[in-house]
Write a structure and sequence with these properties.
The complex is a heterodimer of chains A (412) and B (475). Chain A is of the alpha/beta class and 412 residues long. Chain A has two domains: 1-33 and 154-199 and 227-324 and 343-412, no CATH class; 44-152, Spore Coat Polysaccharide Biosynthesis Protein SpsA, Chain A (Alpha-Beta Complex), CATH 3.90.550.10. Helix content of chain A is 52%, strand content 13%. Chain A has helices at 4-30, 61-69, 91-96, 114-124, 143-150, 171-192, 208-214, 224-234, 255-275, 286-328, 348-372, 379-404; strands at residues 48-54, 78-85, 104-109, 129-132, 137-139, 156-165, 205-207, 238-249. Chain A has an eight-stranded mixed beta sheet, sandwiched between helices. Chain B folds into three domains: 1-55 and 75-110; 125-215, Glutaredoxin; 217-474, LmbE-like (Rossmann fold, 3-Layer(aba) Sandwich), CATH 3.40.50. Chain B is 55% helix and 15% strand. In chain B, α8 (229-239) runs antiparallel to α15 (417-429). The relative contact order of chain B is 0.08. The model of chain B has no long low-confidence stretch (mean pLDDT 84). Classes of the chains: A alpha/beta (412), B alpha/beta (475). The interface between A and B is large, with 44 and 41 residues.
């Protein structure tokens, strides 16, 4: 009854559905562990250094620093390291205005890439916790306090926050808003599974001992935040998620900048997955190795598969149309204009596709509940459903292609 | 790092499988509804066919109108599309689909047979096409043929397309295949009892089908100035036996004082009496052989007339004669009158000019008569000379009649090889005229056949040549 193509499609649909159900089950299983938002003081304010690496961010860096200065955190426990990574614009003069602030130290070094700026800071830090904040991101006043409370568990070695899009305006930014909301859910669920495998640039906080034990950041195919998390996972160091610690980041505004960013992320993921391939299907690494990482790879590859399939279908529709035009010329047949339920696709693939979309919307709504406590349907979800499927194949396909040919990504 | 929890993975697998199963259940449910719908349409059609058959058996021939009125099964076409969709969705081997398709094929054959009987008795203006395709090999031409037939069916309601899967395991279809000698070349079409192998393009199908659709109940009257002009110009058309036809020849009167002209001499005749007698006989033999009715009018040929240039009175008289014909020739159905086209006074024989002008006068008087259609025919051999000047006759005619409220549409009558051969034989029957042309250094037969062969402007795969009509339409 089914051809090869349909079997593959059904297997991939099953996998996608399985993933979504698995995440949902995990979430509801772990839901009782979700703490109520509580801004009481942590048992102890740990000394913290936040490193802000900047390269040509004169426009946003001041705002980033201001947000750090506004953190509800004892000033004597917080140091801010501004590392200018050889900017060629007015970044350095923009940060000079904070020269007199006792919490802030400004360093300038030759350009060497983000990971070198981070390592530069780590080498000079002596606090219990070390974090990073990209110079295009802004923290919520209570973020650090909420994160630090997670470190009350002595096993927790790093905590990742909830990232929101800063003032989304364009359709592309709104699309990312829904995507980031979905990530809130996914990150929380992954933390339940002990499988957070990215400690994103904006405001992931580590115990200093992580770097002391595992060494500094690596170049890691321009995705050092992914590599350090994988390195922690491979060494059994736990990463928690503080879904109530909000960080706002400026999202790419245009398709081009988005593609460039995502291409770097995707290729970084493929390359690091190759470097850490021993993590796959090794039971000693738990859910990360038996579920999370394989599913991540499968979902990326299935995007490529569906793209090829879609292109193939478009090609076959065009070729049929050409045959028709060559036979009878350009005509409008009346039948195509009168809708009839009989010809509306109700195949298993269509129904499963619709179910997947519904599940995805549910997951986004849960993400919204986690981050905003308002699980309502909004415009950004439509943008996400419409555009994401169109755009993501581009960066994923290009990244997979480049990984196969081992090309290098550029940071900016 | 949380440990691998096999129970949870298994639990999620069960839930996912249940959701997956639900999707399949829903999908199957809808497919079931579709099968039910196709089945109920088939049942309805089968009852309809039975009812028309019964009615047909009960009623006498005189009750065609009732049979026409109750005639059914436009649903047949959409049913076919639905079945094709089901085949695509559920696969060609699905037992339910195969069963529905067999039923459908049988209904088509019944509809075809019923249609055939109705058409024989009632002149319905319907054309059945049997279309055989195959699913077994990748038949790109079948797909194209499908598009052509769908287009035709949508644009010509009188066309009935019955499509059959060559490989269907159904004795009735096998019988059809044997009856019409369908070979292994696909697609294969049977139009009006004739089998065509391989893809037939839109133009070809139109050429075969449209005249049959339009001309179900038409009688053609061809106006022939002299005793050979109808055959020289329209021998192929008349030889196809498609329609009841009459040829009216005008200049067939023996002159009261027998004379001997140069032309008659070179035709091998002693005098005018001899010439007319023998030419009438040539004409009778040629036209009788193809079942065409003959009417000869008594006007004197240009070469015998005392005052050949005084044409006004003659033309008026001929106009009246033609006008009288309209009610007299046929009492029911459509009448098509076909007169000679005009190529300018330099090229055209003066007698042809008179007939053309008289005919056009009649056309102008009867432009709004719904029972009569008017056509000009491409008049040979004059058209050969005209074409030599590199002009387009349609444009020339439209220009000539620019202010008369009419215009001309070109209609090519495509001729199969055997019909063209028949036309050669018919022209050869006018021995005297072939001889006379030879005497002036012209090859009448050869030049006409050559012209016909080169005249089709569409690239027909199964036709060898064309004759041309210009339909008169009000503008």
């Amino acid at each position: 009854m089914f051809g090869f193509e349909e079997i593959i499609t059904h297997i991939l649909l099953f996998t996608s559905l399985y993933t979504e159900v698995f995440l949902l089950v995990t979430f509801f299983e772990g839901k009782k562990h979700i703490l109520k938002i509580d801004d009481s003081d942590p048992a102890r304010y740990l000394t913290t250094t936040i490193i802000v690496p900047c390269f040509n961010e004169e426009k946003t860096v001041a705002g980033t620093i201001m947000s750090l200065l506004s953190l509800n955190y004892p000033k004597d426990k917080l140091s801010i390291f501004i590392i200018d990574d050889g900017s060629t614009d007015g970044t350095l003069s923009a940060v000079r205005q904070f020269n007199d602030n006792p919490s802030i130290k400004i360093f300038s070094k030759e350009n060497g890439g983000k990971y070198t700026a981070l390592n530069f800071g780590i080498a000079r830090a002596s606090s219990e916790l070390i974090g990073c904040l990209d110079a295009d991101s802004f923290v919520d006043a209570n973020a650090l306090k909420r994160i630090v409370r997670r470190f009350e568990n002595p096993k927790t070695m790093a905590v990742v926050p909830t990232i929101k899009i800063h003032e989304p305006k364009s359709a592309i930014q709104l699309m990312q808003k829904a995507e980031y909301t979905l990530s809130v859910f996914i990150r929380k669920t992954f933390s339940f599974l002990g499988s957070v495998y990215i400690t994103p640039g904006p405001f992931s906080i580590f115990r200093k001992s992580v770097f002391d034990t595992l060494g500094p950041y690596k170049h890691a195919h321009n995705t050092e935040d992914l590599e350090i998390a994988l390195r922690m996972q491979s060494n059994g160091l736990a990463i928690d998620n503080a879904h109530d610690a909000y960080v706002h980041t400026v999202a790419p505004r245009t398709v081009y900048t988005l593609l460039k960013q995502r291409f770097r992320w995707s290729q970084g993921f493929f390359e690091n997955a190759l470097d850490y391939r021993f993590l796959f299907f090794n039971r000693s690494y738990g859910n990360l190795s038996s579920f999370v990482l394989p599913i991540a790879i499968i979902s990326l590859l299935s995007v490529i598969y569906f793209v090829i399939q879609t292109l193939f279908h478009i090609f076959s529709i065009i070729s049929n149309k050409i045959t028709e035009v060559s036979a009878v010329g350009l005509t409008i047949t009346t039948n195509t204009l009168t809708p009839n339920w009989f010809f509306i696709s109700t195949g298993s693939m269509t129904i499963l596709g619709i179910m997947l979309v519904c599940f995805t919307i549910t997951l986004i709504l849960i993400g919204k509940w986690l981050s905003e406590k308002r699980p309502t349907f909004s415009r950004d979800m439509i943008y996400f459903i419409v555009f994401y499927g169109l755009l993501s194949p581009i960066w994923i396909t290009k990244a997979a292609y480049n990984t196969l040919l081992s090309r290098k990504t550029s940071w900016r | 790092m949380r440990a691998f929890d096999f129970k949870k993975y298994a639990f999620v697998f069960v839930i996912t499988a249940a959701i997956f199963g639900t999707a399949f259940f829903i999908s199957n449910y809808f497919n079931g509804l579709r099968i039910e719908e196709v089945r109920s349409v088939e049942n309805k059609i089968s009852v309809d066919i039975l009812s028309v058959e019964t009615q047909f058996a009960l009623l006498a021939e005189s009750s065609c109108e009732e049979a026409k009125g109750s005639f059914l099964s436009q649903e047949m076409g959409t049913l076919g599309e639905k079945l094709a969709y089901m085949e695509q969705r559920l696969g060609v081997d699905n037992s339910e689909v195969v069963q529905l398709k067999k039923h459908y094929s049988l209904l088509q054959i019944k509809d075809f047979l019923l249609n055939k009987r109705l058409m024989e008795k009632c002149k319905l203006g319907r054309v059945p096409i049997l279309y055989f395709y195959t699913n077994e090999e990748n038949c790109v031409d079948c797909e194209k043929q499908g598009y052509v037939l769908t287009y035709m069916r949508e644009n010509y309601p009188g066309l009935r397309v019955y499509s059959f899967d060559y490989n269907i395991n159904l004795p009735a279809v096998k019988t059809l295949i044997a009856m019409y000698k369908i070979g292994n070349v696909f697609p294969a079409l049977v139009v009006d009892g004739k089998t065509f192998n391989g893809f037939q393009n839109l133009e070809t199908i139109k050429t075969i089908v449209v005249p049959k659709l339009e001309g179900a109940d038409i009688t053609y009257v061809v106006l022939s100035p002299h005793l050979d002009d109808a055959i020289l110009s329209l021998g192929g058309f008349l030889a196809t036996h498609e329609y009841p036809s009459t040829v009216i020849t005008f200049f067939t009167k023996k002159p009261s004082n027998s004379t001997s002209t140069e032309w008659d001499k070179s035709s091998g005749f002693i005098n005018s009496n001899d010439a007319i007698s023998l030419r009438l006989e040539e004409n009778r033999q040629a036209l009788n052989g193809i079942g065409v009715k003959i009417i000869n009018l008594q006007y004197e040929d240009f070469q015998y007339r005392a005052k050949p240039d005084d044409t006004t009175a003659l033309q008026n008289k001929i106009t009246q004669d033609i006008a009288k014909l309209i009610p007299s020739i046929k009492s029911s159905g459509q009448l098509a009158i076909v007169g000679p086209a005009f190529y300018g006074n330099e090229i055209t024989n003066p007698d042809h000019v008179i007939i053309h002008k008289a005919f056009m006068d009649v056309v102008k008087q009867n432009l709004n008569n719904p029972d009569v259609q008017f056509f000009l025919y491409e008049d040979l051999p004059y058209a050969i000379k005209f074409e030599h000047d590199g002009e387009n006759l349609k444009d020339y005619l439209n220009q000539t009649y620019e202010d008369s409220g009419i215009e001309f549409e070109e209609k090519q009558i495509a001729l199969e090889e055997n019909i063209l051969t028949k036309k050669e034989g018919l022209i050869s029957a006018y021995k005297s005229q072939v001889k006379a042309f030879k005497a002036v250094g012209e090859d009448l037969l050869g030049s006409i056949i050559k012209f016909d062969k080169a005249r089709c402007t569409n690239n027909y795969s199964i036709f060898s040549g064309c004759e041309v009509f210009y339909k008169v339409v009000p503008n």
